[in-house]
Amino acid sequence: MKQLLTYFLLLFTLPAFAQLKVSADHHYLQTNDGKPFFWLGDTAWELFHRLNRQDADLYLEDRANKGFTIIQAVVLAELDGLNTPNAYGEKPLINNDPTQPNEEYFKHVDYIVKKAEKLGLIVGMLPSWGDKWNKAWGVGPEIFTPENARIFGEYLGKRYKNNSIVWIMGGDRDIVDQEDRDIITAMVEGLKKGDEGKHLFTFHPAGGKSSSNFFKDAQWIDFHMSQTGHSKESKNYLFNIKNRTLTPVRPHLDGEPRYEDHPNQFNPVKFGWMDDFDARQTAYWSMLSGAFGHTYGNHNIWQFYTEDRAPVSWARTNWKVALNQLGAIQVGFMRRVFEKRNWQRLVPDQSILPKDNIENEEYQMASISQDGDFLFAYLPYGNKVKINTEKLTGKQLKGWLFNPHDGYTISLGNFENTGSKEIEPPSMGRGSDWLVIIDDAAKNYPNPQIINLLSKIH
Q1: Interacting residues of 34 by C-beta distance below 8 A, sequence separation 6+
Q2: What's the CATH number of domain 345-457, 3.40.50.10260, 3.20.20.140, 2.60.40.1180, 3.40.630.10?
Q3: Positive or negative CA dihedral for 71, 72, 75, 80?
């Protein structure tokens, strides 16, 4: 197992203490040495609050193993994070006072942040879940004012100034009044003072919203994040399309999409459950509609469900088993196949696809490189399609069918660029999704196949 982990880390690891910056065109993130950074996040909201160090190691090693780059976790957690102690009996604050952090609690947070760094992971750190400043629902209590939010922010900023962090404000809440806005703004000011401006910022809103709904013009926000909803009907590509039209231009991604193994529309009896296909579809829709990455989520993992805990919203699978549910493995394949090409050069372009592309569960998405040297097209149901290749510059083209299930490819061979190419995948129907990749043959780009890791992971 250790040899396998070492192999994966060679494939996926980022430099330790990596800090990020926004690209010159404001459409994606880069490491400080100028390399494109592929955000592949996992929602581990209760990580600091519920896991001991041994289990945190297990979780983080697994996610590094599978190719994740970001772990989204909350300091003052959602599930009674103020008054239910962590695995070591420690609460985060003394007397629920944000100006009196409990050093012992934060030593545990320190451990997890440093362990993540060793594995090449960046922590997307939420200082607090939203119920601590806007108790629209949840446990609360509301404890923040602009004054103590600034103090708490400065404390966190100083403590994690030299760690690999992205700050995620909000926590499943909208800004509903001026007090909410003042609290978030003050906390940001404190964080920036404490970390000396070393880290990027975004905001995690409630479902069906984007940070741009509340902070489109805020100078402090570096990229936008949406929460697109826990429903098979969600069309997360619409959020990317909207955010790409905004001024000022900022990178955007889906920071909380459909969760794998989550009850569809929160009603498992009527609507069933979401699965690996739902997780894959929302991921490929994200990337081909202009996102700079994607966050995966698993309903059992965000809450670290075990049988001795009350399940939230019908969680049904022990989190250690859920680690290997297929969607988590397959989004790692997605990251790797995009990185086989200069993915950051992709621009959404639906003219590549036929006009009778109905916006339902079979909706196809496509993007083409700004340089005209390759295109990607996602076929959720594997339907036969005629791809428009007129915008590709090569006279000779080379094609591939990439299988999002297992990372294998089927060669489509070399062919003349006549302006279109008919593609007929070998399988059709729900769950038979395929990614079409067509290259300028003169570029000699490699086979985008990803080594099949499924048998090694299980």
Answers
A1: none
A2: 2.60.40.1180
A3: negative
* pLDDT confidence of residue 1: 45
> Could you tell me the residue ranges of all domains in the chain?
2-339, 345-457
pLDDT in tens, 269-309: 999 999 999 999 999 999 999 999 999 999 999 999 999 99
Burial of 381 (0-12, 13-18, 19+ CB in 10 A): buried
Q: What confidence score (pLDDT) does residue 453 get?
A: 52
Classify burial at 429, counting beta carbons within 10 Å of its beta carbon; exposed 0-12, middle 13-18, buried 19 or more.
exposed
Return the closest-CA partner of residue 405 out of 428, 379, 381, 432: 432
Tell me whether the omega of the peptide bond preceding residue 205 falls within 30 degrees of 0, making it cis: no
Q: Report the alpha-carbon angle 155-161-166, nearest 5.
A: 100
2-339 folds as TIM Barrel (3.20.20)
Q: What is the pTM of this model?
A: 0.94
3-state secondary structure 304-356: CCCCCCCCCCCCCCCHHHHCCCHHHHHHHHHHHHHHCCCHHHEEECHHHCCCC
Cα distance between residue 228 and residue 256, in whole Å: 6
pLDDT in tens, 165-183: 999 999 999 999 999 999 9
Closest-CA residue to 396 (of 413, 378, 377): 413
